[in-house]
Amino acid sequence: MPKKWKTKIADSSPERTVVRGYNLMDLIGKLSFSEMIFLELRGKLPTEKEKKMMDAIFVSTVEHGIAPPSITAARIAFSGGNPISAGVAAGVLAIGEHHGGAIEQSAKVFQENLLKSADQVVDLFRKERNRLPGYGHKIYTIDPRTIKMFEVAKELGIFGNHCRFAQEVERALEKSLGRKLCLNVDGAIAAIVSDMGFDWRLGKGFFIIGRTVGIIAHLHEEWTTEPPFRRLDSEEYEYLGEEGKKI
Fold this sequence. Notes:
The chain is mainly alpha-helical. Among the domains are: 9-46, no CATH class; 102-200, CATH 1.10.230.10. The chain has eleven helices and three strands. The chain has helices at residues 24-27, 33-42, 48-62, 69-79, 84-93, 102-113, 118-127, 144-155, 161-177, 185-195, 203-225; strands at residues 10-12, 17-19, 22-23. It has a three-stranded antiparallel β-sheet. α3 (48-62) packs across α11 (203-225) and α5 packs across α11 (203-225).
């Protein structure tokens, strides 16, 4: 009778743990964390250049200040008296379409539309009144992280058709809108991981892996330097409801 659960990723028994065909004991002390992630997600060991690109991707996603939803949500949830695991979970749950999720969405656009022209893609999204993921940023008109990530990708020989397409879409979008919406770091990572052969469905995972480190650092700071129970001060919010109603 066929077994209900199947996996090609890993297996564990009292005798050994095997990961993508390798004995875990042979990997410990030999692989870096980025190499292990590449093996786990792609099913093969990375080249030295792929390893360096993975390092750059994760470094770029770890931190962007206290303000993003993944950090504030984590710190607020933790301040209510929850364990650190709950704080991490709250932070990860804040990662979505408008925060970190654009890696997945952008990679899908790039991988599924690579044979089209950039103008066609922009026209399609504008016609359907959809926001083009991976473009625009609340802070940047030019995202310096994108520039750096593409510099690294070019140095390592990883900058390929998806990266070029992402830049073409950026130019087509500016021409169509009459204003610049920069290719942000999510879009840049999406293009790079697409050129590295990763399926677009893994896109959000890249952000989660890196940002979890930042979340844990902020939770430790919250734990060791702040009093419990975060709440808004009166000058931070405004009541817009009615008053004086009678039962």
